[in-house]
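#lab-general

N.A. 3:47 PM
ok so I finally got the sequence cleaned up, no stray characters, all 97 residues accounted for. can someone with queue access submit it? mine expired

B.Y. 3:52 PM
send it over

N.A. 3:53 PM
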Amino acid sequence: MIRHTVLFKWKPEATDDEKEQVAIELSKLPSVVPSLRAFACGPDAGLAQGNFDFAVTADFDDEAGFHAYRNDPVHREIVERRILPITAQRVAVQFRF
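B.Y. 4:20 PM
back already:
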C-alpha cells in the first residue's frame, strides 16, 4: 500500500470561500478515481500552533494507483483551478505501509 500525504499553507489573501471550495472539490475524487482506496482531507483542527492549514491523505494499492490519481484529469483540474491559486506552501510525501 502507498499513502500519499500533502499539507498546504494558504496565502494570506485566500478567502474562506476559496478554502472551502478546495475541500468540496477534493471530496469528489473518491467517486472519480478508481485507484483510491481511502481518502480524507480537511482544514487543520487548530489544536497546535504553527501547523499547516489543510491536509490530504490518499491510499493506493500500488505506485500505479498513485500515478493514476496524480495524473487524473479531474484531479489535475482541481489542483490548477482551486489549489494552486491560493497555495503559499506545499509539502508532500508518499510512503509504503
